[in-house]
UniProtKB/TrEMBL annotation:
InterPro entries, per the entry: Polyketide_cyclase/dehydratase, START-like_dom_sf
Superkingdom of the source species: Bacteria
Gene3D superfamilies given in the database record: 3.30.530.20
Origin species: Mycolicibacterium rufum
CDD domains from the UniProt entry: SRPBCC_2 (cd07819)
Alphabetical list of Pfam families matching this protein: Polyketide_cyc2
Protein name (Swiss-Prot/TrEMBL): SRPBCC family protein
Length: 147
């Protein structure tokens, strides 16, 4: 059974600036602690990552995942191609400009291959969703302000 979560955050940047930070998948491990490594396997013609292989560590489990991104003007989503610990993962960001800020909504749904106690799964999801919003916000502000 899939477990879902979502969260919103407002970031003082444009949708394009935010998507550029998300597209820099090789830098993700520097601001998202569950990502150990990320390697782009394939890119779209515009240079954005298409397929990415990543090593993810969460809830004491380390997994090698291959995901495929779909990029829009104000959104990005990804779906799981292969993994050892997950049956499926669908996640993404929807960006809504609000003046000089952007409302960022993150949604994720995962289905584990391995049994995990509910409280551990919930805590792990909560941590991942917080990083996907607050961690992204910190990284975007760092990049936008040139620090």
């Amino acid at each position: 059974m899939a477990t879902k979560d979502s969260r919103e955050v407002v970031i003082e940047a444009t949708p394009e600036q935010i998507l550029n930070v998300i597209a820099d998948v090789e830098a993700t491990p520097t601001w998202s602690p569950q990502y150990q490594k990320a390697e782009v396997l394939d890119r779209y013609d515009n240079g954005r990552p298409k397929q990415v292989k990543m090593t993810v560590k969460a809830a004491g489990l380390t997994d090698e995942q291959v995901i495929e991104y779909t990029w829009g003007d104000d959104s990005v989503s990804w779906t799981l191609i292969s993994a050892n610990q997950l049956k499926s993962q669908d996640a993404g960001y929807t960006l809504t400009p609000e003046g000089d800020k952007t409302r960022v909504k993150f949604d994720i749904a995962i289905d584990l291959s391995v049994p995990l106690p509910g409280f551990i799964l919930k805590r792990t999801m909560k941590g991942g969703v917080e990083t996907a919003t607050d961690g992204l916000r910190k990284q975007v502000l760092k990049v936008v302000k040139g620090g």
